[in-house]
Amino acid sequence: AIARFQEGRWEEGIAFAEETLQLAPENSFTKAMLGKFYFVGGFQEKAAKLTDTLLVGPPRDPDGAAAVFELLALLGRDRELAAYCETMDEESTTEQEQANRLHFAVYANHRLGENEVANRYRRAFKALKEGNAEAEENLKDLENGEGHAPWPLPLGNWVPRSTLDTLMDQTQRREQRSNRVLRELVHLIAPLLDRGDPFGREFAMRLAMADGSPQMLDALKVFALGARGPDKMRMDALLFLKERNALGDGPHKVYSRGKWTTIQLLSAEIYSEAEDSNSCPEVVDLMTDGVQSMHDGDYDRAESCFENILRVEPTNTNAIYNRCAVWMHRDGPEGVERARPEIERLHQEVPDYTFARVAVAQFASEEGRHQDAREILAPIYRQARLHVTEAIALFSAQADICLASDDFAGVETAIAMLSQLSGEDDPRVMHFKHRMSRDSGSLRSALQHLLKRA
């Protein structure tokens, strides 16, 4: 039965296990393995019913218990798994058996939020000479703050070896994955996103994204708005869903850095084409020269360009704003003091001008009025279209505001969007990653210290 399962021959594997159980009805190991085959083969209702009968008189022998640990973990029956691990305390004789039981006890209790109980089991595991490979990987993940732990089993316990080999072969040949393989795995995607190991969770997420069916989008939505798995993976899923129009604009409640927070996603179409200008060619050339000079750090030349534009077009919003930007970059606090009333006036007169709105929001944030800053930015998220430069300004401001208010979920959203717009190596992206790492570094170190002590 096990050989057939690893070959991906579901029906034969189940048939052999059912026949074995007819010959030996009390064989708890076979019963647990059959429950696993039902679950992995897509017969969840059969798996649940068989598991219920197993728990009426759960096995006390090591082999049967190990199979039941695995079955309960695969099915996500955490509370029953935690209780069963506790009752098997006296039955574990060898260190290997103890390590296996303790691993599942730590896993189940962490999932249930019983962290004190989980830590007690973890200390007992660390005292053993013989370990459990999966438990060791879980401990490393917990101590490093990677965000995958706890998980019960590696991907090979979920998916037959032949199926994995087929997928790997198709990937290496850059072939499109067959519908048959996806059909075989579709019922495992949501459980793997919820409690898969690092490779299994990544595997499930990539398959779900590649498939893109309503069922897979629903699984990704549950994952993105849940508390399982690394923050970055859930944020990637959230952005993918937004791109596929499978998620509203929000705000959305998400779990990040160990707490629930609210984030706002952008609904605008982002474009990069140059906008048509009603200005004369002389003004267009001056604007181009001024912006380039500002990027090159030649602020005096840039200021001269923008002032020349304003002599021709006194109400040119881009020239007014960019001249203020020159003052702020070149002249420090005095420049900010000089520019601020100009920018606030511009925002009042032209409320749809994105750059002025962003700057006014940043002024509010610098005064500690973080909620006011968010409310000032809110209309931009509802715009139909944004130029890429406006989007970069928006997400840079969002990152600044969220950093100032310790809203790390918001920072990660902003960094993710900036990375999409300008690339992972863009100086702005690197700047915010460095600031977030610096601002949260002391907290992370303290948490890691506490975990090691526990």
Describe this entry's structure for a reader:
This protein is mainly α and 454 residues long. The protein has 23 helices and 4 strands. The strands form 2 sheets. The chain has a two-stranded antiparallel sheet. A two-stranded parallel ribbon has the order 3-4. The longest helix has 33 residues, at 317-349.
- Give the biggest beta sheet: 2 strands, antiparallel
- Quaternary state reads single chain
| Gyration radius over CA | 29 Å
State mean pLDDT (0 to 100 scale). 87
Q: How does the overall form come out from the CA principal axes?
A: elongated
Helix content range of the residues, please?
over 70%
Q: What share of residues are in beta strands?
A: under 5%
User: Helices and strands, in N-to-C order?
Assistant: HHHHHHHHHHHHHHHEEEHHHHHEHHH
Low-confidence stretches: 441-454
Strand elements, count: 4
Helix count equals 23
Return the structural class: mainly alpha
Q: How widely separated are the two ends? A: 42 Å
How are strands sequenced across the largest beta sheet?
1-2
In short:
The chain is mostly helical.
Helix and strand arrangement:
Elements: H1 2-6, H2 10-23, H3 28-40, H4 44-56, H5 62-75, H6 78-87, H7 95-111, H8 115-126, H9 133-144, H10 161-172, H11 179-185, H12 189-195, H13 198-211, H14 214-224, H15 231-243, E1 252-256, E2 259-263, E3 269-271, H16 281-295, H17 299-312, H18 317-349, H19 354-366, H20 370-381, E4 385-387, H21 388-404, H22 408-422, H23 427-453
